[in-house]
Specification:
Length: about 190
């Protein structure tokens, strides 16, 4: 489960709805969208990372990875979202519902991501039933496995339609940002885009 997942992930979810199987038994892989997201800033892509407790990266199941609060990353992330999207058409519409995710402290990254995902699914009106794995399977022969196909270190080959972005005149269109970029710029039309 990703932190504020990229648009490409939601496009896949929209394709495979109504039931989605979420992996929670795998070992936590480093440098993935599980604890990071990309948003549009005046200077281009801004990466936001949820810090995890040291040791959580080594053979720890993704459901057991704990969030670190050694510094106030929630304040930093929330300020970044406000700064980058205050001028967008729909930020104010979702702001009050999103703010508590940057105030409440969650122990586990998986729980935090799940609650954020449920909020986003509701906000974009994407009817999906989330189911979760009970054991780790290296391969799911009858399912399309998205665990490693959408990765921040790999170029995504999928075409992406353009939509208005706040800093587009400065940066050009930035592909495959977090779903919140699409949500804040397109609001209730997000589902039509997907």
């Amino acid at each position: 489960m990703f932190y504020l997942p990229p648009i490409a992930w939601f496009a896949k979810i929209n394709t495979y709805k109504p039931v989605i199987l979420i992996e929670k038994e795998e070992h936590f892989p480093k440098q993935t969208y599980r604890n990071r997201t990309n948003i549009a800033s005046p200077d281009g892509v801004l990466a936001l990372t949820v810090p995890v407790i040291k040791g959580s990266k080594n053979h720890t199941k993704v459901k057991d990875v704990k969030i670190s609060y050694d510094f106030n990353w929630q304040r930093l992330h929330w300020q970044s979202l406000q700064t980058c999207y205050r001028r967008s058409a729909y930020f104010e519409y979702y702001e009050d519902d999103l703010a508590p995710f940057y105030e409440k402290k969650y122990d586990y990254l998986f729980d935090y991501n799940e609650h954020l995902l449920r909020f986003i699914l509701q906000a974009i009106k994407l009817a999906v039933e989330l189911t979760f794995t009970n054991t780790y399977e290296a391969v799911y022969p009858s399912l399309e496995d998205l665990r490693d196909t959408i990765h921040p270190k790999r170029q995504l080959n999928a075409d992406q339609k353009t939509y208005y972005q706040v800093f587009e005149e400065r940066n050009g269109f930035l592909k495959n940002l977090s779903i919140v970029d699409l949500l804040f710029n397109q609001g209730p039309h997000t589902i039509n885009y997907l």
